Automatic annotation (TrEMBL), chain A:
Keywords per UniProt: Transferase
InterPro entries: Beta-lactam/transpept, Beta-lactam/transpept-like, PBPA_dimer, PCN-bd_Tpept
MF annotations from Gene Ontology: penicillin binding; peptidoglycan L,D-transpeptidase activity; transferase activity
Pfam families documented for this protein: PBP_dimer_2 (PF21922), Transpeptidase (PF00905)
Entry GO terms, CC: plasma membrane
Organism: Solirubrobacter pauli
GO biological process: cell wall organization
Domain Penicillin binding protein A dimerisation: 52-130
PANTHER family hit by this protein: PENICILLIN-BINDING PROTEIN 4B, PEPTIDOGLYCAN D,D-TRANSPEPTIDASE
Keyword Ribosomal protein carried by entry: no
Keyword Transferase in record: yes
Stretches assigned to the Penicillin-binding protein transpeptidase domain: 153-458
Protein name: Peptidoglycan glycosyltransferase
UniProtKB/TrEMBL annotation, chain B:
Residue ranges crossing the lipid bilayer per the database entry: 39-58, 65-82, 94-110, 119-136, 156-175, 196-217, 223-238, 245-265, 324-345, 366-387, 399-420
Keyword Glycoprotein carried by entry: no
Source lineage: Bacteria, Bacillati, Actinomycetota, Thermoleophilia, Solirubrobacterales
Organism: Solirubrobacter pauli
Location in or out of the cell: Membrane
One of the protein's GO biological processes: regulation of cell shape
Pfam families: FTSW_RODA_SPOVE
Protein name per UniProt: Cell elongation-specific peptidoglycan biosynthesis regulator RodA
């Protein structure tokens, strides 16, 4: 029996060699990939030894700060609680990071560009991270958040000229000190997808005028029940407008006009202008990509954006914000910002500067142009048309005394029988662009969303 | 040098491990050297020495390396358990004492271990009864979907640990009788020697038992351990590879069938294939074991230096002191540390098989082979589970993992090996 016993021993030697092989596979050869796995909490635990930088609002109010824990570790505290939870995010040793805490993690733990490894930095006495100075305005953020209570929705306010994000609010929010208990950390402002309704007509108007095919005073036919893509389309309240100007068609939000304009401009031109406005891609904001969603006609089941050339996309209904079109509040705020900025789309920015522990500014990103979407002339014309919406159209509830407000309301029908709509207002003043969405409620954009936009603009000094 | 003096001398590595290990952990924790904990280490070593003395006077011709190898593992285990949790280390030291008592008792009660052969069916029945205990309502305990433990009052143990010895004793006795018959009268088919169907019976019965365990006790690990030991024994008893091939094929078919029909087994397989897919639930343990090994790298973070706990929270790896202790070892001591542990088991297996070759009668040979194989397989099952060679199942790392039944059972196993060895090497 000794020969088979010896062979059996050899079998076990092979089995044990396999164990050594697999141990090397995880501990040495595949270790780098495992260390970089976002589920791996070890690196976060090590980083607790670093005094993480402070995140501040535009007025230097602390939005996220570090507190000393036992054993030379630091924890994260959020003095403003759920108010800034969506833009700031959280840093949690167990479940990871989100928002600015994630996007700017390298800066916040003081990891400089020159790839100094974590180990190197840990050997220093105490490593201190850089601070973030954001563009968020607490007074306006708080007002927006308060106005959203009792609703589900979002408010985004951008600096018209520089793209700085002044308000990024949504409800429901969560407690960033205990993100592990949160039902959801979904950011409606950047991830929420809604049919834009009539606010989309501003994009169609831009395409119409910038392409040279229309002028604000072009005569159009506002009759009710025009057949678009084989189906009759109605105006709000079945109203027949007859022969009107393009400006009047925007002021009164005449569906049949804008759908027809969309069809006449064609799929390619609509695609071109939507692309220029940034549809179809994640917004170029300093915020984690997987917490932002691209806007556009969407195959919801397959979770992908459809090109305008797709048979399934109805260009006429897309032009009035219906059909398969779904957009984020941030995208629509960007549309308003672009028109308000003479046609130049700016990259939305949450962080104004990064300051090192000695108070030196290490990075101060300049406002950055994303794209010229339209000529200055077009922007002025579309802006004037939008001012007429607030002056005498569906958006009068957003009017401010002493400040000219341009805007567009939107009421996207969700449940016609029960009168449930998604309620929109987008608009801008000389300095601030705003988008407001209230989810699934009765009423119109002009009656529910516009007053909120007005108050937020006021809080921002407009 | 006499065998016993060699054994005594070989205990030195164990004592070095205890002293250096504790020192490393103390320095790491940046505390004063606590004499209390060093005392534990001292007592532990004194116990090893006592074990040596018992062997010296009762089994003078036994293999001189097995006991020191086990002492090294146990000392190392104590240090690692201490590094994970001081209270558990205290328990572990107590279990070590009880294990040593069981060791000594086995040596005294089974001076002539061949009486075991006579009671093979009683032992087999007792073994099966032990295995079924966890399914008895009221005392059975379910852990992660498998019925592994039995709890009576404050005491809980895992019967599978003792059951493995009973099964091996039975198989060794049974195969000693039937090995001749199994080899005779074979037909050949497709180049494989097929034994007569009636002699395949026992194979089918044991296979059935392994499948039964897989399904009823839901313990894939023990099932693999027992069936593997059986195949090893039948191969050594008959020297026919065909039995092994058929057996492996049957096991693979059975395992595949149950993996695709029983959700518990299926879950284990899914976790094995991709632990990150279910990271937040079932994949968490194995994924964190992998993170721990990756954190260890080639040389490890240093004994006591790796991060084992979520700050102000529970362990980063669930069950670090039992199922996942190998991951903790690699985290602290790196690939090099893991290699050292596996090499130690390789040496133990080498001594075990050596004893089997030296033994003069078939029963002793088969018993030594079976005991060695079942222990080596246990190492393969748990380390293979942690390193994702096979799906993870909750068996202990012999002598190293925290746990009473494991230590006691493995000390009894060790005593049997030394008894066989003593008899084989006694000059006639």
């Amino acid at each position: 029996m000794n020969v088979p016993i010896f062979r059996l021993y050899v079998v076990f030697l092979v089995l044990f060699a396999v164990l050594i092989g697999f141990t090397s596979r995880w501990s040495v050869f595949g270790a780098q990939r495992l260390r970089e796995n976002p589920d791996n909490a070890r690196v976060r635990i090590e980083e607790q030894r670093i005094k993480r930088g402070v995140i501040r609002a535009a007025n230097r109010e602390v939005l996220a700060g570090s507190t000393r824990l036992s054993g030379g570790r630091y924890g994260r505290r959020y003095p403003t609680g759920s108010l800034f939870a969506l833009p700031v995010g959280f840093d949690n040793v167990r479940i990871g990071r989100a928002g600015l805490e994630r996007y700017y993690n390298d800066a916040l733990v003081g990891r400089k560009q020159e790839l100094s490894s974590l180990i190197d930095s840990l050997t220093k006495d105490t490593q201190v991270g850089d601070d973030l100075q954001t563009t968020l305005v607490p007074r306006a953020q708080e007002l927006a958040y308060d106005l959203l209570q009792g609703h589900q929705g979002a408010v985004v306010a951008l600096g018209v000229k520089d793209g700085s994000v002044k308000v990024l609010a949504g409800t429901p929010s969560f407690d960033p000190d205990k993100p592990e208990d949160a039902k959801s950390v979904f950011n409606r402002a950047t991830q929420g997808l809604y049919p834009p309704g009539s606010t989309m007509k501003t994009v169609t108007a831009t395409a119409a005028i910038d392409s040279g095919r229309y002028q604000p005073d072009s005569r159009v036919d506002g009759k009710n029940g025009k057949v678009i893509s084989g189906t009759p389309l109605n105006n709000f309240g079945q109203r027949d407008y007859g022969d009107i100007t393009l400006t009047e068609a925007l002021t009164n939000s005449v569906n049949t006009v804008w759908a027809e304009v969309g069809v006449k401009l064609g799929r390619n031109r609509m695609q071109e202008y939507m692309d220029r406005f940034g549809f179809g891609e994640d917004p170029p904001m300093d915020y984690p990509d997987d917490q932002m969603t691209a806007s556009g006609p969407r195959d919801v089941k397959a979770n992908k954006i459809l090109p305008m050339s797709s048979d399934r996309v109805d260009v006429g209904r897309t032009a009035i914000g219906q059909g398969l079109l779904l957009v984020t509040p941030l995208q629509m705020a960007t549309v308003a910002q672009t028109i308000g900025n003479g046609g130049v789309r700016m990259q939305p920015r949450l962080v104004e500067k990064i300051v090192d522990p000695d108070g030196r500014t290490t990075d101060e990103p300049l406002p950055e142009e994303a794209e010229r979407v339209m000529s200055e002339d077009t922007a002025a014309k579309v802006g004037t048309m939008m001012k007429s919406v607030v002056r005498e159209g569906s958006g009068t509830a957003a009017a401010l005394s002493g400040v000219e407000v341009a805007g567009k309301t939107g009421t996207a029908e969700i449940n016609i029988a029960q009168g449930i709509n998604d309620l929109w207002f987008i608009g801008f003043t000389k300095d601030v662009a705003v988008a407001v969405i209230i989810e699934r409620e009765q009423g119109q954009g002009g009656t529910v969303a516009a007053p909120i936009a007005k108050q937020v603009l006021q809080a921002l000094g407009q | 040098m006499s065998a016993r003096n060699r054994e005594l001398l070989a205990l030195i590595p164990a004592s070095l491990l205890v002293t250096a290990g504790f020192a490393a952990i103390f320095i790491q924790r940046n505390e004063l050297l606590s004499d209390v904990s060093l005392t534990y280490g001292g007592i532990f070593l004194a116990l090893c020495f006592a074990g040596h003395l018992v062997i010296r006077f009762t089994l003078p011709h036994a293999d001189p390396y097995l006991f020191p190898l086990v002492a090294v593992l146990a000392c190392f285990g104590l240090v690692v358990v201490y590094r994970i949790d001081e209270d558990l280390a205290r328990d572990q030291a107590q279990w070590f004492v009880i294990g040593l008592i069981a060791f000594v008792a086995t040596i005294f009660l089974l001076r002539d271990f061949r009486v075991l052969e006579r009671y093979r069916y009683t032992i087999a029945l007792a073994g099966l009864a032990l295995l079924l205990l966890p399914r008895v309502p009221g005392i059975g305990q379910q852990v992660n979907g498998a019925y592994l433990g039995v709890g009576v009052g404050p005491i809980s143990f895992q019967p599978a640990e003792l059951g493995k010895i009973a099964i091996v004793i039975f198989l060794a006795a049974y195969l000693r009788d039937t090995r001749q018959v199994l080899v005779q009268g074979s037909r050949r088919f497709l180049g494989i020697t097929i034994p007569p169907f009636k002699h395949l019976g026992p194979l089918l019965v044991v296979w059935g038992a392994a499948m039964f365990m897989l399904v009823f006790i839901r313990d894939l690990g023990s099932s693999l351990m027992y069936f593997g030991a059986f195949l090893a024994l039948i191969y050594v008893a008959t020297n026919r590879l065909s039995f092994v091939v058929i057996g492996l094929g049957m096991f693979a078919a059975g395992a595949y069938f149950f993996a695709s029909t029983i959700s518990h087994v299926q879950d284990r397989v899914d976790i094995w294939l991709d632990p990150f897919k279910t990271y937040d639930s079932t994949g968490y343990q194995i994924a964190n074991g992998m993170f721990a090994m990756a954190d260890g790298g080639l040389f490890g973070q240093g004994l006591g230096a790796a991060v084992l706990r979520v700050p102000d929270g529970g362990p980063l790896i669930p069950a670090p002191e039992t199922d996942m202790i190998y991951a903790v070892i690699v985290n602290d001591l790196g690939l090099v540390g893991g290699l050292g542990v596996i090499a130690t088991y390789m040496l133990i297996a080498e001594r075990g098989f050596k004893i089997a070759t030296l033994a003069t009668d078939s029963f002793s040979k088969l018993l030594a082979t079976g005991l060695t194989a079942v222990m080596a397989l246990q190492v393969f099952v748990i380390v293979g589970g942690v390193t994702r060679v096979i799906p993870l199942t909750g068996v202990t790392l012999p002598f190293v993992s925290y746990g009473g039944s494991s230590i006691v059972a493995n000390f009894i196993l060790l005593a049997l090996l030394l008894l066989i060895s003593n008899r084989a090497r006694t000059p006639s």
